[in-house]
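Researcher: Quick test of sequence recovery. Tokens follow.
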């Protein structure tokens, strides 16, 4: 079985001053395979730039995804914020389509003052509307629903599964650090990882886990969930080696985006760890 794990940072390398296209060239030269283009604080990439990014990434057989703006909140207490959120998400999907980036990763919303079910319904309704517009514009990227790190955010594993089940063109994005943080540190053993992947597989079907999109870092957390992402080996967990071995044993393909503060440096470390495990098993 070939090695099917692909690695890259969330955004440009640490301290990198160039464009996204230049970052892709730099990362590919380092031996990395992927990048999640960050549009989290608003849109910074023009259509022209997006076309150049697409060309450069194709030349390097590079895998791109995009992180949509943090300002999106499809379950806001304010109707106006929900409308703006749908517009922003549609714009992110359009830009990602031009760039050749998929999925467009999303933190869907906050519970606010609402019951959790009500917030989830608002998210699902909003997403369905955006997906309809995407279809009419022939935008074919997937929307990635991320497991979120704060207990105030829509995005438990069960909620992500329910959203993906109900909304076409969505896929789960598993952020293991976030799951660890929002559940008080429960991602420890092989079985803890397998439980998350297994639930997605059982509830949604095997096609949803054969090509996983994963975010990884260690993480500091408290009662409200995530505090900050930490480098590999910080000791807070979750532990990367266990996930790498599990994915290799399962034989699923996965793009693993490194969200530690060391970004590309830890992405390379993850790739080396995973390749080490893979080669040991092969022999
Ligand atoms: Zn995220």
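Model:
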């Amino acid at each position: 079985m070939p090695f099917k794990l692909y690695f890259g940072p969330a955004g440009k390398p640490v301290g990198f001053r160039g464009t996204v296209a230049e970052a892709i060239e730099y990362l590919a030269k380092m031996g990395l395979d992927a990048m999640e283009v960050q549009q989290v604080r608003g849109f910074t990439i023009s259509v022209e730039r997006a076309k150049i990014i697409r060309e450069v990434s194709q030349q390097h057989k590079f895998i791109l995804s995009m992180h949509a703006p943090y300002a999106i909140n499809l379950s806001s207490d304010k109707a106006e914020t929900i409308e703006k959120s749908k517009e922003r998400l549609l714009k992110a999907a359009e830009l990602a389509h031009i760039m050749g980036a998929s999925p467009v990763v999303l933190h869907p919303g906050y519970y606010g003052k609402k019951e959790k079910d009500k917030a989830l319904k608002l998210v699902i309704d909003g997403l369905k509307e955006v997906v309809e517009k995407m279809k009419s514009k022939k935008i074919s990227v997937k929307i990635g629903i991320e497991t979120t790190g704060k207990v105030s955010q829509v995005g438990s594993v069960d909620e992500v599964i329910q959203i993906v089940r109900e909304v076409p063109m969505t896929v789960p994005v598993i952020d293991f650090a976030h799951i660890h943080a929002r559940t008080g540190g429960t991602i420890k053993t092989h079985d803890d990882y397998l439980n998350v992947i297994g639930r997605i597989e059982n509830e949604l079907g095997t096609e949803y886990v054969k090509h996983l999109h994963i975010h990884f870092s260690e993480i500091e957390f408290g009662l409200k969930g995530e505090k900050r992402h930490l480098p590999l080996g910080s000791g807070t967990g979750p532990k990367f080696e266990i996930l790498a071995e599990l994915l290799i044993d399962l034989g699923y393909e996965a793009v693993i985006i490194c969200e530690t503060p060391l970004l590309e440096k830890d992405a390379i470390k993850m790739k080396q760890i995973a390749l080490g495990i893979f080669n040991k098993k092969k022999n």
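DSSP finds nine helices and twelve strands in the chain.
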